[in-house]
Amino acid sequence: MQKLLELLVKTLVTNEDKVKVTVDEQEKQITFNVVVDESDIGKVIGKNGKMANSIRTIIKSIGAKEHKKVFVKFGD
């Protein structure tokens, strides 16, 4: 899941080397924290948050197959 999330975010941003995805995994829950360059945060979130919601939907659907709750947070 982490690799897919990194791939999705890197395709959207200009500064691919500044993309950082960290994982906080607990028993039934996974939280991904996505950090990008300040100039790219708008591209990742999208208009009215549509891009961020789409990314979350994709990652959550994969997590559902593994019976885990998945959260994706964008920002610092």
How would you characterize the overall build of this protein?
- This protein is α+β, with helices and mostly antiparallel strands and 76 residues long.
- It has one domain (2-74): K homology (KH) domain (GMP Synthetase, Chain A, domain 3, 2-Layer Sandwich).
- It contains 3 helices and 3 strands, in the order αββααβ.
- It has helices at 2-12, 41-45, 50-65, and strands at 20-25, 29-35, 69-74.
- The protein has a 3-stranded mixed sheet.
- The two termini are 20 Å apart.
- The model has no long low-confidence stretch (mean pLDDT 94).
Summarize the structure.
This protein is α+β, with helices and mostly antiparallel strands and 76 residues long. It has helices at 2-12, 41-45, 50-65, and strands at residues 20-25, 29-35, 69-74.
Low-pLDDT ranges: none
Mean pLDDT: 94
Q: Which word captures the global form? A: globular
Give me the number of helical elements.
3
What is the straight-line distance between the termini? 20 Å
Q: How many E-type strands?
A: 3
Largest sheet: 3 strands, mixed
Count of all domains: 1
- How much beta, percentage-wise? 25-35%
Enumerate the strands of the largest sheet in spatial order, edge to edge or round the barrel. Answer: 1-2-3
Helix content: 40-55%
Broad CATH class? Alpha Beta
CATH fold annotation: GMP Synthetase, Chain A, domain 3
Q: Which structural class is indicated by helix and strand composition?
A: alpha+beta
Helix-strand sequence? HEEHHE
